[in-house]
Write a structure and sequence with these properties.
This protein has 2 domains: 79 residues, Immunoglobulins (Immunoglobulin-like); 651 residues, Maltoporin, Chain A. 4% of the residues lie in helices and 56% in strands. It contains 4 helices and 48 strands. The strands form 9 sheets. The protein has a 25-stranded antiparallel β-sheet that branches. The longest helix is centred in the middle third of the chain and has 15 residues.
Length: 760
């Protein structure tokens, strides 16, 4: 008897998404197929997706990409409605420290957005995560600030796709003004900037948005404790592409509600502590039109606003059981009574981009507001001048940049050239020299107008061979402000040498100049005698790759700064409990600066292990020398800065990570109380400049996240815990009534943030 057995083979759809295992970024042009398949090989689209018809039962998904290599995924397929598979390919490098044109990687770090979004304590903001890189210290006084090599924040320039923006971080919360879903990578120069960057004396942060058009429609939605946002990418047709996004915060309302509940539960007894409620919104839009295979037009729009609200709190500073005259409920805390700080700006840019393979250029014009702010500087915040008012004004920037490839000089060689013209208008109103906290009608109002014009040109030949790279930059800038005109040359040189045993030697030196901020020299509220800030920056370093996935990047740097714009070191504040008086021009010229140190970045990403991480170490010194020959530490002199980031992949798309940050205590100038018997009050006497320090800064952040796909929707659930130990790091120091006791005001406590992100 012959028995005939037949086997029925069913086909089932398999939805494949291919992503970078390190960054989570989707991978286009990956080849995918089933070993036991009814279809031939398929190629993933711009979203890293493809659909296969595979035979049911035991199978294997094969994936290949030129940059990532091969990977095989065993899979059991049933005859259900379909199977969704998310395949993660190992990236060839974790942190890219290399110029996109293969120019010298002297002091330049290019880090993808997805890498930095995974750093704990950043609330998913990639720009904020730059604090984890060498040369960057997190100061006690600002949660989102970037302090580079001991320089002041005004010496770091912020850009979006090469377009300057007035500020990058929202007040207190510290999130950047750029919607994270549109950030492709971040270009960070802690020093040694190339010739195409000007009006910056220390560092550059250039946020580069996505340039590759999506296929069809891509929607990203995110919501967490701090804010919520929606982003859209739409390919309208072969020529038109639109990207738009918006974000709005509600953390201020949550803080306000929580504070009122706490006071109510306490029975309303005692004195209510003033709480700060930050609130912000951001807008972004980019419309692109492809003229031809080599030409493109685009319109970029960027706007942001953040406000800082104060509650009506009471303080008992002198310990007599009664609220002090200087109580928050008695003070009109800003130009707008509703806000303490109200900052906003907007930018619109029209750009033409051309690239024919040999020659590429960009021409654009941008307009908007430089910054519009409502400000208050209270005695306990700055001790430099109580003032309130509105500052701001429009600006226009015109820029042209070109790059010509020169293969006859060597592969990758090129000439970079360009020019830029910037015109800023400035207006300040309702500022005051002195005020009475009980009667705000006693005001000396000031109104001032000013403008700046900067014209610059640059050319940089770049010679490159298999072993050498040399870039010689020649840049010149003409500054015009307050009836003054000056020309500043800015020569720059960068060199790279590839050595045996995978060792790269590198070095750079250059001169950089920058105008002081408008509000610091404007007549009436600043010092019109200020001059151009200048700096020489230099660095030498080494990079190498060791076995096992360890990469080491080590550099020694030094910088000399001239004509720094600082607050008047001799201004004293007079306070009798009712009246606060001070000098009105808190800035002066004559301070020089010296910064030097060593930076080390140790990155570890083994190819065969489910964990990765890096350690960043900076040992440095930042000093200042005034016109009287006094040498003192910079406000941001933090000799030791250490950051460790580590993550472990638990499986099933779960990942846990932690970040530890510690820095030396930030210096500050102490005050001493002197009793005046006749008037029966204490006045303050200033001690030696920056002769005391806050306690050392320490913070532990942790994060857990899960990434999965369902029905073409990519999901990410995360819990980000900021300051997990709730350490009370001081961010400002004040005193009791007789200046005998220092009272530290702590920065943010533990903040757990639960968030959900969906991308379609």
């Amino acid at each position: 008897m012959l028995f005939l057995f037949t086997t029925t083979v069913f086909a089932a759809p398999v939805n494949v998404t291919v992503v970078d295992a390190t960054t989570g970024k989707t991978i286009q042009y990956a080849s995918v197929h089933c070993d036991n398949s009814l279809t031939t090989k398929r190629i993933t689209d711009a979203k890293g997706r493809s659909t296969l018809d595979c035979n049911t039962g035991s199978n294997t998904i094969q994936v290949f990409h030129e940059e990532y290599g091969k990977k095989a995924i065993p899979l059991t397929i049933d005859n259900s409605n379909g199977t969704t598979v998310r395949i993660r390919l190992e990236s060839p490098s974790f942190l890219i420290v290399e110029d996109e044109q293969q120019t010298a990687a002297i002091t330049r770090h290019v880090v993808t957005s997805e890498e930095l979004k995974r750093v704990p304590g950043t609330f998913g903001d990639p720009v904020r995560a730059l604090q984890s890189l060498p040369g960057v210290a997190r100061p006690n006084i600002a949660e989102g600030a970037i302090v580079v090599r001991g320089a002041e924040g005004i010496n770091t320039g912020f850009f979006v796709d090469g377009m300057p923006v007035p500020y990058m971080f929202h007040t207190m919360v510290g999130r950047s003004v750029i919607i994270p879903s549109f950030i492709d990578d971040i270009e960070f120069f802690p020093g040694g900037m190339p010739s195409n960057y000007g009006e910056v004396t220390q560092a550059v942060v250039n946020v580069r948005t996505n340039t590759t058009p999506t296929e069809g429609t891509k929607v990203n939605m995110r919501v967490d404790f701090l804010d919520g946002g929606l982003a859209l990418e739409q390919k309208i047709n072969d020529q038109w592409t639109l990207r738009a996004a918006g974000r709005y915060s509600w953390v201020g309302g949550l803080i306000s509600t929580a504070s009122k509940i706490a006071v109510k539960r306490a029975g309303g007894q005692g004195y209510e502590a003033a709480y700060i409620a930050p609130q912000y919104w951001d807008q972004f839009a980019d419309l692109r039109y492809k003229l031809s295979s080599s030409d493109e037009l685009s319109i970029l729009y960027l706007a942001s606003r953040d406000t800082l609200y104060f509650s009506e709190g009471r303080y008992d500073l002198d310990g007599d059981g009664e609220p002090d005259p200087l109580a928050w409920e008695d003070a009109d805390l800003s130009y707008n009574p509703e806000h303490w700080i109200d900052n906003q700006f907007w930018r619109t840019r029209l750009l033409w981009r051309h690239n024919d393979g040999r020659h590429s250029h960009q021409t654009w014009i941008a307009g908007g507001t430089e910054s519009q702010q409502n400000l208050l500087g209270a005695w306990w915040l700055s001790r430099q001048g109580p003032y309130r008012g509105r500052v701001g004004g429009p600006s226009v920037v015109v820029r042209r940049s070109d790059r010509w490839l020169m293969p006859e000089w060597g592969a990758g060689s090129a000439i970079v050239a360009g020019g830029q013209f910037t015109h800023r208008w400035f207006e300040a109103e309702d500022f005051q020299e002195t005020f009475n906290v009980e009667d705000y009608d006693d005001v000396v109002e000031i109104r001032t107008e000013d403008q700046q014009m900067v014209a610059s040109m640059w050319v940089e030949p770049q010679w490159q061979s298999e072993l050498w790279y040399v870039g010689l930059g020649l840049r010149g800038a003409a500054y015009s402000w307050d009836d003054q005109t000056t020309f500043q040359p800015e020569p720059r040189l960068s060199v790279r040498r590839q050595m045996p045993d995978d060792i790269l030697l590198k070095g750079a030196v250059g001169r950089y100049t920058q105008l002081p901020p408008l509000e610091r020299y404007a007549q009436g509220i600043g010092n019109p005698d200020l001059a151009i800030m200048k700096a020489w920056q230099s660095s030498v370093g080494m990079e190498t790759n060791l076995t096992g996935g360890l990469h080491i990047d080590s550099s020694i740097f030094g910088g000399w700064m001239q004509d720094l714009v600082v607050r008047d070191l001799e201004v004293d504040t007079y306070n009798d409990g009712d009246t606060v008086t001070t000098e009105l021009q808190p800035y002066y010229l004559g301070v020089q600066g010296l910064a030097y140190g060593w930076e080390g970045l140790f990155r570890y990403r083994p190819s065969d292990q489910p964990w990765w991480g890096w350690i960043s170490v900076t040992l440095s010194k930042a000093m200042r020398l005034d016109e009287n020959g006094r040498l003192f530490p910079s406000d941001y002199d933090m000799p030791i800065s250490f950051t460790a980031v580590g993550a472990y992949e638990l499986g099933k798309d779960w990942e846990v990570s932690a970040r530890v940050q510690t820095t030396s205590g930030q210096p500050f100038t102490p005050f001493y109380g002197v009793y005046v018997p006749r008037e029966q009050y204490f006045t303050a006497t200033r001690g030696d400049l920056n002769s005391e320090r806050y306690p050392a800064f320490f913070r532990l952040d942790v994060r857990a996240q899960k990434v999965w796909s369902r029905k073409w929707v990519d999901w990410m659930l995360y819990l980000d815990v900021y300051n997990a130990t709730s350490r009370a790091n001081p961010f400002i120091a004040t005193y009791n009534y007789d200046y005998s006791e220092l009272v530290d005001i702590a920065s943010l406590p533990i903040i757990p943030t639960l968030g959900l992100e969906a991308t379609y």
